[in-house]
Amino acid sequence: MRLFHYHNHSKLHSVIHSNFVNFEISVWLHTIARSLISLFIPILLLKLGYGLKDVLLYYAVLHLVDVPLNFFARRLVILYGASAEDVLATIASIAYFLVFNNLVGGGLLILLSLAVLDALYDTLYWVAHMYLFVESSIKADNAGKSTGLLFTVRSLAGKLGPAIGAGILLFGSKHMLIAATILFFLLSIIPLIKLRHVKNKPNPRKLSFKEFFSEFREKKDYLSLMLFQIHSTMEGVLWPLFIYTIFNTLNSIGAIALIVSVSTIAFSYFAGVLSKKNQYLLIMGGSLCIIFMWMLRMVASSELAYYASTFAMAFFAVVVSIPLESNIIARARAKDTLTAVTIRNAATMLPQIFIFALLLVVVSIFNVSFLIAVGSLLVLMAVTNIFLSIGNKSIA
Question: In this structure, what CATH number is given to the domain that contains residue 341?
């Protein structure tokens, strides 16, 4: 499951005998379950008769409901514990796919109900998931390596999931795919039960927003992650839709998923190791390269260029996202772990409300989405540079 070649014996031994391995197994199984079908959901909606605008409305409602639900999920972790909430998230996801299994094209009400269930799953799972990751992972000064490992584990599972899902859709049926998805979700619960000595229920005292953002580092970290997530959403939702509208085959989407996984697996741990000492250069350089890839896509028209840009984009996304995530993870325990991961998830979903609302009313959906991605990265580079200058002045 891990990239063992990147560990020396002592580091490997310490990780295997920790809660981190159980956490990773759960993530691996859960990611397989989700990746079996998640990439194909907007495409299946199109094939069921929904229009592109309907799919965009689905994502707009998903993000609108998601943001406030994060704070509900935070409260549940305090009351019942993160592991229990992960189980509830899995049940919510299973309910989602059971509804999806009986989806009839053209019904707007059931589509919006699906969006609400998806938001419920997302908030329950990610708040609890990131909390358990911080509490079960290795020391804060190794946050980059831990984050790199987490990205690697997800990518290994993500590589298997879309390939299996595409095969089931091509040679089986949608119903078989959903059944396989539910099975993997249920299996992902088992390792969570085996977690030991993890602070499953946090201190009920919570920091106020003013207290949490009292230091400029938190302002920089969460604003930067929020800006980068805009690009990630355009890449994860709009780009596959764009590819599908051009090639009109599930194979093209499966190819996109495999390319992204291979690139992410190849570089996740490497970027995690580098992130501790080269954060500024990684964020600035990676963002600049991603901007170039988006601009290339706007003028390119060949299949080779599309797939090559997908591979490069996945690599540069790892280069930027791991230092951004590891900054937040490294600080989470020092401030307030549960508040940190709650705000993290809410912040990454907030801008998408306005973006999908905008895309609902524009004509050239894909061109506008590509420009939005470029704009968010330009702002990220500016913010990184500004905060770096502020940090240097405060140190001086």
Answer: 1.20.1250.20
